[in-house]
Amino acid sequence: MPIKADLDAIDWKILRELQREGRITNVELSSRVGISAPPCLRRMKRLEETGIIRGYRAMLNAPALGFDVVAFCLIGLRHQSEAELKTFADKTRNWPIVRSAWMVSGDSDFMLHCVASDLATFQNFVIEELTSSPNVDTVRTALTIRQVKDEGLVAIGESAG
Q1: Segment 1-12, tens digit of pLDDT
Q2: Does residue 140 sit in helix, strand or coil?
Q3: Which pairs count as long-range contacts for 2-10, CB under 8 Å and 24+ apart, including other chains?
């Protein structure tokens, strides 16, 4: 698969380390990737400015905060015009329970990753928001049992670059 960005082996190492540990200090990062701190910081800034690094987040323990329900919803729309797709995509941005959303191909039009405090909250969201939304034809839900893997969003191997 061709790489869209112009990255060398050091850039790939920086990305891999930051994806593993976003709060790493620049000094520790530079040590891990094998360059001194000033060029490491310049490379990081370049990766941020070009949009390869989109930002940094804390990974929260949802159950410890009282959010015990994780579910996925597959949404089918009655009409898939560009305007209808955009309208539904915009709607997902206003639902706090929806943590990420994708427009997908196949039998559904959208896949939503939802996190709720309890089953009743999730059920109310499905009934009161999703199924009652204009242009929504089908809603299929899948409650998760347990998360078995939680890695960074991009697989960056040791030999990348």
Answers
A1: 455 778 999 999
A2: strand
A3: 5/50, 5/52, 7/52, 7/161, 8/161, 9/160, 9/161, 10/34, 10/35, 10/43, 10/161
What distance in Å separates the CA atoms of residue 142 and residue 134, rounded to the nearest whole number?
22
Options 1.10.10.10, 2.60.40.1230, 2.60.40.420, 3.40.30.10; CATH for 1-59 is: 1.10.10.10
Asked whether residue 144 carries a pLDDT value surpassing 60, the answer given is yes
Q: What integer is the mean pLDDT of 91-98?
A: 97
Same fold, 1-59 and 63-143: no
What CATH number belongs to 63-143? 3.30.70.920
Rounded Cα gap, residues 83 and 86, in angstroms: 5
Average pLDDT over residues 13-26: 94
Q: What is the pTM of this model?
A: 0.83
